[in-house]
Amino acid sequence: MMKKQDLLEKRQHIEQFRQSSSLSPLHAQQIQQSILKSWQRSQIAEIPVDRLAAPLNYSLTHTHGGSALQRAVQNCAEDLRHIAQQSDMVAAVGDVGSTIIWTAASAQMRNVAEQVHFVEGGQWREELVGTNALALSLKTQQASCVFSSEHFMSSLHDWVCYAAPILDPYSKQVLGVIDLSTTWKNHNSLGMLAAERCASLIQNALLDQQKQQLYIRAFRVPQVLFNGKVVVMTPRQIEILVILALCPQGMSLDTLHQALYGERKVSMGTLKAEMSQLRDILGGMLGSRPYRILAHIEADFLQAEQALDAGYVQSALQTCAGVFLAKTESPFLCAWRDCLESRLSDAIFNAQDTDVLLKHLARSPEAIDAVERLIELMPKGHPAHQILSKYTA
């Protein structure tokens, strides 16, 4: 732990930096680049100066009740709660949009956390509350520390927060973030390691529960994992699973045949044979009358849809890396893909964050909608403006 005098000087220096109209090169070297960029984004967001607590939205936390992340957190909740209480901290887990879905706090930190809405339902997106560790860790996809007045909101200047992203053990997709927070006087250089350790606890819980579920990837190279292992399947069998994942209420044989084949002349017997093979592969985890998947399902396309529903554009764009089932001829799946792509385009044309769009363009160079939106957002004198204009020429 750092000496109190060193911590006080660190806090005073940061406050001086924040109050100055511009940072000198020397000052800029003493502040992390990620913090400086976050301050700039926070200024652009025009956050109300009188905002002292995060906005609350309990409805978002309710939608996560059955999510893989929520179940994993519940499975290791006692360990996380013990860490928070023993270290006199508040521990919080946020989803991919920085909305808190679970917390545990020591007696000292509980009331402080409630005052700033560092509780379930608290929305800690950067554009809403400015620089904070949850949002910064999700933005950089690395462990982050935000100390004292590095926080944008003045109500957090007595805090120090350490956060680390929570990754899906298989896809490495960011599912959320874990944050450990305490008072600035208790700042410890090992805080980020502690946050990373908590993230590992949750990721191990995710790994355990993925051994008892079906995971479907439909972007880029389609793949199915069952009970934690890759299962060899034909493209048709994967299409059937994706349709059933999108229709959890189940489907009759006729409806499934229409969704899969449309007007193509394929016999019912062929589909029945496919279903029989699938039931063998899934060890009986395929119900009939109606046809439905009996195992718990996680899928990248479902995660993308949920992210769009919650307004988490960055997460949706990261998840949609590539084309959804690019070779499918299923009328149902083609229609669903068209709908998803339309929603993504709408989200892109409403996006305000150039960093998010640039990262999306790096992953998907053919994304002309992202290019057009970047041209709108960037000033004409910006060096990238001319380069981007060539995309649409």
Structure description:
The structure is a single chain. The protein is of the alpha+beta class and 393 residues long. It folds into 3 domains: 4-210, GAF domain (Beta-Lactamase), CATH 3.30.450.40; 213-298, Orthogonal Bundle (Arc Repressor Mutant, subunit A); 301-391. The chain is 51% helix and 14% strand. It contains 19 helices and 11 strands. It has helices at 4-19, 25-30, 33-44, 58-62, 68-75, 77-86, 107-115, 126-129, 133-140, 191-210, 235-246, 253-261, 268-281, 300-310, 313-319, 331-350, 354-363, 368-377, 383-391; strands at 90-95, 100-105, 144-147, 159-167, 174-183, 213-217, 223-226, 229-231, 286-287, 292-293, 296-299. Strands 2-1-5-4-3 form a 5-stranded antiparallel sheet, sandwiched between helices. A 4-stranded mixed sheet has the order 8-7-6-11. A two-stranded antiparallel ribbon has the order 9-10. A hairpin with a 2-residue loop joins strand 7 and strand 8 (229-231). Helix 16 runs parallel beside helix 18 and helix 17 (354-363) runs antiparallel to helix 18 (368-377). The longest helix has 20 residues, at 191-210. The model has no long low-confidence stretch (mean pLDDT 89). GO terms for molecular function: DNA binding. This is OmpR/PhoB-type domain-containing protein. InterPro entries: GAF-like_dom_sf, Sig_transdc_resp-reg_C-effctor. It comes from Acinetobacter indicus CIP 110367. One of its GO terms (biological process) is regulation of DNA-templated transcription.
